Amino acid sequence: MRSATRTTPRSNMLIAALDGKACQRLQAALEPVSLVLGEVLYEPGEPIRHVYFPSDGLISLLAVGEGNLVLEVALVGREGFFGIPLALGSRVSSVRALVQGEGTAMRMSAARFLRELKGNPALQRELNRYANTLMAQIAQNAACNRFHVVEARLARWLLMTFDRLQKKEFRMTQKFLASMLGVRRVGVTAAAGALRHRQLIEYRRGSITILDRKGLVAAACQCYQANRNREKLR
Description:
10 helices; 4-stranded antiparallel sheet; alpha+beta
């Protein structure tokens, strides 16, 4: 984890939602850091030492199964933070937290976070609202992975990634995408090929570029809009 200087607390939407006084309480405790692509912040069962408020980075929350198989259950970007277990009374991570999009974040020690949570009612309210939104995203993604075809799921995932990173091009390998979506690499190849044939994306080895966001919204399953609507209501 590297220190970073090109970010501010209010780059994160959750912090930006706090009023001036509540936000000021956090600033002295927040440290800017760089999120490195592929870096594992936490494994299941590990104690949470820091919480992270992404600014322009992206953290993937992965459920880890037998044989180290993984499936993405949620994304955390500038709309939220990683550290919900601490806010709910647990001190260990239940998922693998993996940096999926490199960028920056603000972080805070777990001890300081818990002190702030007790003395900052406005922060507590925002975190409670975000926890509800995150749990809804996890439930929606579980249904999506069970019922929807890979092409629609890939479109949904690309849109959710774009919304958080605000970038049209992502560094992404077939193997990584297959893990995120819980399918074989051949399934990713077919789904990406279909979206590319419709001129919605450009897919090269190691990267994906969104060419037509509106078309991608039309290609995605209803889960994308359901998640987006909940985030707007929060």
